[in-house]
Specification:
The chain is built from 2 helices and no strands. With 69 residues, it is mainly alpha-helical. The longest helix is centred in the C-terminal third of the chain and has 25 residues, at 44-68.
């Protein structure tokens, strides 16, 4: 049983050493450019999304009250 594991371990060791030697040192990436504005503007899409969520919440509360009564 141990005799079968020795060739497998040797082959595995050789393959791992090839993979490790194939790794190269890449130069560090260049520094990032100037970033955009710090804050994002609240545009119409966010307001519409908030209004739709509010209307959906009101609808769910109204429909749940209707089921109870």
């Amino acid at each position: 049983m141990i005799q079968n594991k020795k060739p497998f371990a040797s082959i595995l060791f050789v393959l791992i050493s090839f993979v490790c030697s194939a790794q190269t040192q890449n130069p560090p990436p260049p520094p990032a450019g100037p970033s955009g504005p710090v804050g994002l503007p609240v545009d119409g899409g966010l307001i519409i999304l908030f209004a739709a969520g509010l209307l959906y919440g009101i609808y769910k509360v109204y429909s749940n009250r209707k089921k109870v009564l």
